[in-house]
Amino acid sequence: MRQLFILYIILTIFSCKRNEEHILTTVVLENSKLALSLTTDSLDVPWDLQYDKTNNYIIFSEIKGSIKKIDLSDNSVQLIKTIPNVFQQRTTGLLGMALYQPQAGEQYLFVSYTTKIGAKIYSNLYRYTYKDGSIENPKLLLQIPGNTGHNGSRIIIGNDGKIYWATGDAAIDANAQDVMRLNGKILRINIDGSIPKDNPIPDSYVYAWGFRNMQGLTLGANGLIYTSEHGDAVEDEVNLIRPLHNYGWPLKEGKNPPKKETDSTKAVSFTEPLQSWTPVIAPAGIAYYGNTKISEWKNSLILTTLKSQSLRVLKLSEDGQKVIDEYILFKNMLGRLRSVLVLPNGDVYFCSSNRDWNPQKGFPKKDDDKIFKLSLTDKTTGTILQPIKTATNSPIAKLSGRALYDSYCASCHKTDGKGIKGTFPALENSAAVNGDVKTLAQIISNGLKDQTIGGIKYDAQMPAFSFLKDEEATAIINHIRTNFKNQAPTITVNQYKQTKN
Ligand code: HEC
Q: What is the CB < 6 Å shell around ligand 1?
């Protein structure tokens, strides 16, 4: 009896300790408190999270090709399958998924991933039969052109039982406005891969167009569909998707007017985003919170971001047509965040992406990547955190060259100017930065592509920064010419103005 009692005490201490260790932070909202806890760690770029309501599993993909499950009764993780022939390089690989569990009949897991056959790259939509945490019988539903970047993609099943596939423009600008091509689109597809009879364009998968590189897709109240998307150097977006609407890329970005007024752009009507961000935040996975459990978040979109390393809560208007408030959580705490999932019980799961191609300063940590859980609590444990309300649409007013550089250039060339070898050239000790003012001004104003710099061929492109004010571009130039081991004379606003075109 006494021994049992001692054992009981030991077990109690042990289990308490374990629980407490796992609660990292308490998030204090107006009425509710949320515990942030670690569900699992040491993953390799988890990309998409799905919920199996029959078995209480989370099914997730990792970019190199594995599909795994977490049994939520004990948080144990198991490999379901390694998908063969996934082409993984930088942002390509095993990407979005959707688990389809209808009331009756077969269950399916839809997966999208990149393949490379010879020199050709493809984005693929596959369907696996799903049963109790295992998958079999892959069927290729659709294959479209891919590229070394801009492959999207996310998948959802709409309230109408159709697949919606958000595809990237495959790094070819002309794709998004060409209704005959399937890149840069929301595609609507039957469960068997055929074209639905009631699609808005007869015999076409195309449902909406004008997209660059969507990274999030979710189903809101009343069947509304929302996406998140990366702009080039400006204007990341969250959009509300309507059939046959044109979302503007590459002719129009964010809430800005079309870049060039031509007869053809005048004739088109573009749909503006619900929310857009400049400087860019690199939005990724998005999930609709329709639950009442966390009452402050009811009718919100929860958005993960990569560059701005945060979770954002976008409060929607009652009809879901507008974003009326925005809050930031975990800024610079957990690193890049990739995907988010809301469970029917109101818990929120999300994952980090610190082992991907573009880790931020101080990451990856030894036990990255991780899946976290946010759930209601009545205790306050660990550090305390409150959401920060964003200043809506504040321009970068009168900032220094360093701050402008960090906002517009550092996502690629890095805060220290070292770039990423083979992907983004270093601006440190750079002939281009120290050299001729005209060439440098034109690189910044017009962008750059297809260069070989220091013997390395860069296949990524440098976007044009012609939208910057002359004063801002000059401040950036002077920052890079006097930092990163560069020692060139500064330039005047007039010099920039006269040489940029
Ligand atoms: C989206 C990523 C990205 C952003 C943002 C970006 N660049 Fe670049 N930059 C590149 C790439 C890629 C290249 C090489 C392009 C090529 O191969 O032609 C490049 C090239 C350059 C070069 C030429 C380097 C050389 O050695 O020839 C300069 C200078 C430069 N960038 C400055 C900037 C500045 C200043 C900013 C911010 C205003 C900026 N870049 C923002 C991706 C980026």
A: 233, 408-409, 411-413, 424-425, 427, 430, 432-433, 440, 443-444, 448-451, 453, 458, 460-463, 465, 476, 480
Residue 204 lies in domain: 26-389
Q: Write down the pTM of the prediction.
A: 0.82
**What is the C-alpha to C-alpha distance for residues 192 and 139, in angstroms, rounded to an integer?**
9
**Is the preceding omega at residue 279 within 30 degrees of 0, hence cis?**
yes
Do residues 301 and 189 share a domain? yes
Asked whether residue 437 falls in the same domain as residue 346, the answer is no
Q: Are 389 and 327 in contact (CB under 8 A)?
A: yes
Residues 277 and 344 both lie in one domain:
yes
The token pair at 1 is 């009896």
> Residue 379: inside a domain, yes or no?
yes
Tens-place pLDDT, residues 76-124: 999 999 999 999 999 999 999 999 999 999 999 999 999 999 999 999 9
Continuous segment of H or E residues that includes residue 13: helix 2-22
* pLDDT cut 90: percent of the chain above it: 76
> Order of strands across the sheet with 57-62?
46-52, 57-62, 66-71, 76-82
Within this chain, do residues 174 and 238 fall inside the same structural domain, yes or no?
Answer: yes
Do 260 and 332 lie in one domain? The reply is yes
